[in-house]
Amino acid sequence: MSIDMVQFHQVFFEESFEGLDTMESGLLNLDMGDVDVDEINTIFRAAHSIKGGSGTFGFSAVSDFTHVMETMLDEMRDGRRKVTKPAIDVLLGSVDCLREMLRAIQNEDEINLVSVAEHKAALENALNNTDVNSSQSDQFIPPLINVATPVAADSQVEGWVISFSPHVNLLRTGNDPVRMFRELAELGDFTVNVDLQGVPDLYDLDAEDCHLSWKLIVNGAISAHAIDEVFDWVEDECDLAKQAIYSQMATHLPDVNISDVSLNVIASVAELSNKTEIIQHAEVIHKEDKDESKSSVAKVSNSIRVDTGKIDTLINMVGELVITQSMLSLVGEHFEVTKLDQLKNGLSQLERHTRELQESVMNIRMLPISFVFSRFPRMARDISSKLGKKIDLKLIGENTEVDKTVVELLSDPLVHLVRNSLDHGIEMPEVRLAAGKSETGTVILEAYHRGGNIVIEVRDDGKGLDKGMLRAKAIEKGLIATDAVLTDKQTYELIFMPGFSTAEKLTDISGRGVGMDVVRRNIQALGGNIEIISELGKGSTIAIHLPLTLAILDGQSIAVGDEIYILPLGSIVESLNIKEDRINRVGGKGETFLLRGIYLPIIRLHEIFNVPNVKATKLTEGLLVVVEGQGERYGLFVDDLLGQQQVVIKSLEANYRRVEGVSAATILGDGSVALILDIPGLVRLSNQ
Amino acid sequence: MTELNNLIGSEFSDTNSLQFLSFTLGNEEYGVDILRVQEIRSWEPVSRIPNVPAYEKGVVNLRGSIVPIIDLRERFNLDNIVYTPLTVVVVLQAHFEAKTRIMGIVVDTVSDVINVDKKNIQISPTFGTKVSTEFINGLVSVNERMLILLDVDKLLKLEGVTDEHDNYS
User: Fold this and answer.
1) Which end of chain A, N or C, is more open, meaning fewer C-beta atoms within 10 Å of its C-beta?
2) Which of B51, B60, B101 is the closest to A660 by Cβ?
3) Chain segment A407-436, per-residue pLDDT in tens
4) ipTM, two decimals
5) Nearest CA distance, A307 vs chain B (angstrom)
6) pTM given for the model
């Protein structure tokens, strides 16, 4: 009997990616020099099940590769091998490589064999603990070290061979290879070999395109960091592969001098690049960085792994519901007036069960936010080692549960915010010391529930936002008038304006705004909002407020004229009848209401929505609903309050478009459509 | 014209005949590709949408979807006619960026399903700025009467109905 194995592939991939995440976080948790058997066991088990699974499905490349990792982990577990930073770096690199391999198999792409061979060689190299020896050198492919995998031991480095292929646009972005070469030349003895192959015919040539690529050799004991720094600004605009020349190489080949060795190495690099695979590999690395979140979203969106406890509750609920149903039908069969009480009881039971059932169904879609958070330790580690910063990343409230859709859509904006904090917020260690702060910067990622919302905060104790600079920049860009009066909050909001920081990436502040308009738009599309609190020199906090679920909302129906709107219950503070003597006017138009010492701006819903047939035109005739939006309170003036109910959120945009002041629509009990109000949008409307 | 060619090319490659649902707006007769018509309903009260042009009457609940209703007479600046129980809403499917959107248009009466030989379809002439021809796919003569063929996808683009990026809807 033959079984079609393909049906199990999806499950295998899901489990494997989960296993890889476990391995990654396990590796990041390992303490240097200390063997934590439990942690290593966890990593080992994950690796082992990937190896087993891939063997079963005939993905031999994966199982072979994992086998080498296992050997290394095994040695660590037995205490034969110490837990060192280089070893962890190699393992982390292997996890990345493995993830890439599995993705390729899943997407039915070619596996990048060069990259696999490199990582495998790096693993074996680390495993043997003896660097290259001559007997191995025939099959040995030198590990090309990319930015993410720092070199084993910089001290032995005698020089670097760098293969540098800029993308066509490099010159247009204002980068000049000559300047970079000059910088490299300052580091040590420097040789440039240019590759003219990519240059098109004269008639096809655009003088502003860059078609050249280079093989660069720098001799000298130079740290990987120094090399990276030179290429820092063009990292995304080129394919870069660099390889260290180790001193051992020279000792094994005593008859030739360094430059000959370098030439050999160049030859091998050149040979490899003739296959063009190295370049592809480098591209894969760059692309993967950006595509990662997207592709993972696409992949997990079809299935969900649910705690069996939640399923059990659901089954219980259904059981109860069935009992209630049979009890009700029994009552209905021979109904007499005397059974009215029984019927009422049954109905109220039914109501309770329906509600509980609904809650447990919703609960199935809830995932802990650690699904998003778990990627950040790795990111913090990579960024801090790349930039030479000291960063302590703390995750709080990882188990807070959020709707699956929210989790997925949240990950991109959050990556952006955390990266900003790590990259721009936290200063270099020496700067921090000089400012009287501890050398290590702290970034805190916290999720918690507040009301019907989830709040996610990214806090750092970095340099904070400079209001003066933000203002100057906005004026320079023509986004605000030179004499505009802005509150602190409005000033910070400037970074959300599109195009705020596209230029002058090099200034220390502008990076904060890159893509922030997109971040805010994505958050708003989820029905949430984002706010910034910052203090110059002390740090910034960016808080995202999101609804827990995108499907159902606790709403309060309100009546204005003949129309019914829904207000999210969570945004209502209180409702009151108001007296004329507490109403004040600002500039003859803007109305405020004095509530416990605070002047609340009054928003007349019927005015901003132009509702006909309004019942209450005088403020004393209607009701004032005090609502909170983006941290501020407003009085929303309406005719009357109707009932509270849970409403199912329906998108207005699926067939129509976004409407200012309205976040979505819902269908009422009578089948008619009611609009769900969006407080920040109403405030914007009323300010127009 | 390219749209028309596409239309003809994709859906009617084996025949020269196209089918249109014809309806009237005031004294004029219009037609839409019958394959885009999802259903025909009677007018029912809509939920008003604040701060939109008057011809965007509002939204209704169509079996769980929120569907906008647009009054074509008002859109084309024809005389307003009082809505009666006989007023008709034609529910159309429009394709936009690989997505299907649904909208309803209010018309006076639905008259017929008409077979049109695609050779007889004349490209809409330009009327300068006097008449907006942006939704018109072509003109055809049926029984001595002129039928104005509408492009459903372009109708949907009315005043930026689609100009919001709605990646999350």
Assistant:
1) N
2) B51
3) 887 888 888 888 888 887 888 888 888 888
4) 0.78
5) 27
6) 0.49
